[in-house]
């Protein structure tokens, strides 16, 4: 049975108390605080990462990370407020019986690990960066140049491995509704998409370097659509299908808790970025810092995407509200313009 935080009748105070009692929330909070302490103990003045797009000291990044967490939590509250009067679909009922759900979840996780390993081997064999959910240089920038062949192969591999193959397999047994691929409230979904997109875009403009003012008219005309399509294929659709269409309903079925499902959705989204080009695993200290910052960077956005999916039953909502346009098109267009030498 889904936890009481799903109850529309619950008051805000009761909802917060229910969340605080959730073991998954407690464990996540403790691990988050522990990770902050680890960074302050292990890192010197500067982190060992190649982050030209987001410069700053290690303390600056810890502060920024926690501000991003608060922003993400506020976004989740906003999503819950905007959907409080909606009839929310029962995602757990869209998953099969418990035994089948457990088996499918184990197989999906094993398949995801295999896809990541193949992506690592393929990228390295071709002399490129390993293939994870982000193209090298995404969001944080990178000093290493990425060529068109690497970018297109990355997008094609991710689309095939995390979207096409899983969708073909599961579509034989489950309907589009069971896979969270259709809307039960188009007007409500559209309103939610517009509000979240506007708020998230405003946050991006206020906190990070965006595409505004960085490109020529031709680069805007060609680069923005190219960025949108490249990341739609290589990052957005793979995450949507693998995590939010397939894993999230099964997490909810297995745990019976919306809060735990949100955390697990964030964890799954984070782990798909394990090969991000900025990570450093050449020493134990750098490896620990890399793992910590993978979760610092991706856990909160992954949880926001899960909340959007759980509250609407539509995996497409997060695509347009909180992924394809902001951040990727908004932030990564200059990178794509450089990759494809668009002048």
TrEMBL record:
Record's keyword terms, sorted: Membrane, Transmembrane, Transmembrane helix
Top-level taxon in the UniProt lineage: Bacteria
Keyword Transmembrane helix in annotation: yes
Transmembrane parts of this sequence: 25-43, 63-84, 105-131, 151-170, 190-208, 228-247, 254-275, 287-304
Protein name (record): Uncharacterized protein
């Amino acid at each position: 049975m889904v936890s009481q935080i799903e109850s529309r009748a619950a008051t805000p105070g009761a909802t917060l108390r229910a969340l605080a009692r959730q073991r998954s929330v407690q464990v996540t909070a403790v691990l988050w605080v522990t990770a902050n302490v680890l960074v302050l103990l292990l890192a010197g003045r500067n982190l060992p990462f190649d982050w030209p797009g987001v410069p700053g000291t290690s303390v600056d990044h810890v502060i920024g990370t926690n501000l991003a967490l608060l922003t993400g939590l506020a976004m989740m509250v906003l999503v819950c407020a905007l959907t409080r009067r909606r009839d929310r679909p029962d995602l757990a009922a869209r998953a099969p019986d418990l035994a089948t759900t457990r088996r499918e979840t184990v197989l999906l996780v094993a398949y995801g690990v295999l896809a990541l390993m193949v992506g690592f081997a393929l990228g390295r064999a071709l002399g490129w960066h390993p293939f994870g959910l982000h193209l090298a240089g995404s969001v944080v920038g990178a000093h290493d140049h990425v060529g068109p062949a690497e970018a297109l192969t990355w997008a094609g591999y991710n689309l095939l491995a995390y979207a096409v193959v899983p969708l073909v397999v599961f579509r034989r047994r489950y309907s589009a509704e069971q896979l969270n691929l259709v809307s039960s409230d188009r007007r409500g979904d559209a309103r939610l998409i517009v509000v979240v997109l506007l708020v998230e875009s405003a946050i991006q403009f206020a906190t990070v370097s965006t595409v505004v003012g960085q490109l020529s008219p031709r680069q805007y005309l060609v680069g923005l659509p190219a960025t949108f399509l490249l990341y739609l294929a290589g990052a957005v659709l793979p995450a949507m299908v693998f995590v939010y269409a397939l894993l999230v309903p099964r997490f909810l079925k297995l745990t019976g808790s919306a809060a735990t499902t949100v955390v697990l959705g964030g964890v799954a989204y984070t782990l798909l970025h394990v090969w991000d080009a900025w990570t450093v695993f050449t020493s134990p200290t750098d490896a620990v810092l890399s793992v910590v910052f993978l979760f610092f960077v991706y856990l909160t956005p992954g949880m926001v995407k899960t909340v959007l999916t759980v509250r609407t039953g539509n995996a497409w909502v997060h695509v347009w509200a909180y992924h394809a346009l902001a951040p990727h098109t908004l932030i990564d267009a200059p990178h794509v313009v450089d990759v494809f030498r668009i002048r």
